[in-house]
Model the fold of this input.
Amino acid sequence: MRTYTDLSITAARIVDVAESLIQRQGLNGFSYDNIARAVGIRKPSVHHHFSTKADLVHVVTQRYVDRFISQLERLDHSHEAPKDKLLSYAQLFQDTSQSARLCLCGMLGAESESLPNPIREHLQTFFNANLLWLTATLAMAWPRRAGSAQGTALLLLSSLEGAMIVGRTLLVNDAPMQAAKALFDQLDC
Done:
């Protein structure tokens, strides 16, 4: 199956537009016609690069997951204090939310049962990588509570994903950061 690392300029632009549309409207909220118009090409050209929507979404999710995991690695290298890492992590969700988008994997996760296996595997990779990173970071932040770090990681990730949805619905621009800070206050961070 194709990877995002070998895309032509036009194919990369198609992936960019598809990612944005999925984050704003969901998987069923866009068509190849929408992409063709946004990229400035004809619909058959989109099919030339990605014969099916599943092929396109596979590349979109693969790239998104790899980029997000790279961001987690950058957080580890750019911050020493666990609290700073966690606040910067929450800021990733805040930045996405402020651009009127939802997390791609959160958006697709709601439809995961109907997605092809390769896409579901990307979603699992995303959530597992986030939970592993959060668990390790939380265990460093609260060594005495290390046993509860895994549950707290799930709580934080779920809170941020949910805050994006609630914030979008209620027009609360800083919902992810509000949720993170409230949780950190509860954890006495």
